[in-house]
Amino acid sequence: MGAVIECKNVTYSYPLAKEPAIKDLSLEIERGKFYGVVGENGSGKTTFCALLRGFAPSFYKGELKGEVLVEGKKTTDYGGELSAKIGYVFQNPFTQISGVKDTVFEEVAYGLENFGIPAEEIERRVVEVMQMTDIEALAMKSPFDLSGGQMQRVALASVIVLEPDILIIDEPTSQLDPEGTESVFAIIKTLKEKQKTIILVEHKIDLIAEYADEVLVFKDGQVIAAGDKRKILSDMSLLEKGASLPQVAVLGSMLKERGLPLSEIPVTEKQAIEVIARALEERKKQ
Amino acid sequence: MRDLRLKDVSFSYPGGFLAVDHINMEIKAGDNVAIVGQNGAGKTTTVKMMNGLLRPTGGDVLIGDKNTKDYTTAQISRIVGYVFQNPDDQIFHATVESEVRFGPKTLKLSKEEEDKRVEEALALTGMDKFKDENPLNLPLSTRKFVTIAAVVAMGTEILIFDEPTAGQDMAGNKRLSEILKLLHAQGKTVITISHDMEFVAANFEKVIVMAKKKIVRTGTPREIFWDLETLEKAMLKQPYVSRVLGALHIDGDIISIEDAVEGILNR
Ligand SMILES: Nc1ncnc2c1ncn2[C@@H]1O[C@H](COP(=O)(O)OP(=O)(O)OP(=O)(O)O)[C@@H](O)[C@H]1O
Ligand SMILES: [Mg+2]
Q1: For the whole model, what pTM was predicted?
Q2: Which member of A95, A147, A260 has the closest CB to residue B39?
């Protein structure tokens, strides 16, 4: 186990920016865990992702102080190998499409071709991932003739097909219907079971509560809360800091305030049902 | 103020892909409606036909007693404003302010009226603080508000927002909800596409559900979010609180946290 990525006193400023986008950040990402990255817009979540992947500073330029280490080596000391280690799904699905392929099938296969993988294996992996992301029916369509949600599924598929050890995924469900959103989380869960490390930026806090192990809450370029999701997502004080909390946690805390004896603030649906049912039993006995 | 009606409308994309299949819809002047439904159901295609960006390949789109078939897209866009799903399909100018001013300029208003429209739209969307920035340097969720401002500034009687909640944080959703309230109070007709069930439950009077190129049901949020069969057909989910209450067998078709608290305590 141990840390697969480490940030040591990282401060990063975009070129021309008045203020750093990330301020003195130190943390460790452990192998095989699923991290939910949350917090208000503009709080530094995407910049954090770009730093872990080395895009900041290599692509966005700007000034980096401190160190970002991936498997013990500084991101700035890597060449192209980082792209094989870390899969990255960009926030805007409309820009992830390569623009050089004529069909969705070829689009998903594109990255694998670049890695020089044999044709049969490419075909097998692409078909499997297209099934997982429910886009098989679109295989022969042009990547540009898709609905917003379909495009986002293609963007995700084209990265998970590469089977990288570390996945950084920036808001992969923003355009998805509720069912599609759940299935993306279910896919991420199976990736985690394969010992992949997952860093996921997501506003859908209820799903983070359901699936993630750890939560990092960003605000103004800093991590203001980090740790086990149950602990973080039941902390009502985070609401005042612009973070959102699961619906069921808010419900639980309101019930508690009104005197219902809940044993804890639930963060998942299942937990909420149990905790509330027990409290109602409790109240009946009294 | 005019009603909007779709009569037996279909649409096939060039190449023959049928995206919308014989739908009927009636939206009354001043209505505040949400359109929900699975990815690829045909929501975007449908609303693009309302403002003339796409033309039905079958059936008619009527605004009041006028058939949109007899008007140019430019003419329709003065009655029906559309905020694209992807803001980048809509942004062409170097500053936020010039982006928002572009539309009203084409209306040949007095200078004062034009300035007023632009200022009000910037203030309403919170984009006034970014007015001199290049929209492309702003995050996607903020760019969406730039495009909303640009459409609001046109002052159309009907406004369509295609997935404004995508990627918004809590503050963004709250702002959206305020914008919707204000437009509604001004008597505008507002049509919003969203995948955010909590947002839909809290902000609309009427919900239209689309699945597989068709409309499967129209109703109040309460009706829709307790019609489990329709939800399943359209790949939708109940709001979280409704799911919890369902499991606890507390009825009342509750869809908000406030009602859920009362429902549980009064059991
Ligand atoms: N330019 C195009 N050419 C061919 N087919 C298209 C084109 N644009 C969209 N489609 C198809 O039309 C169907 C409906 O698309 P539409 O964009 O209306 O869906 P939507 O309900 O808005 O979905 P989403 O929730 O994902 O945005 C989809 O199956 C899509 O693949
Ligand atoms: Mg759409």
Answers
A1: 0.93
A2: A147
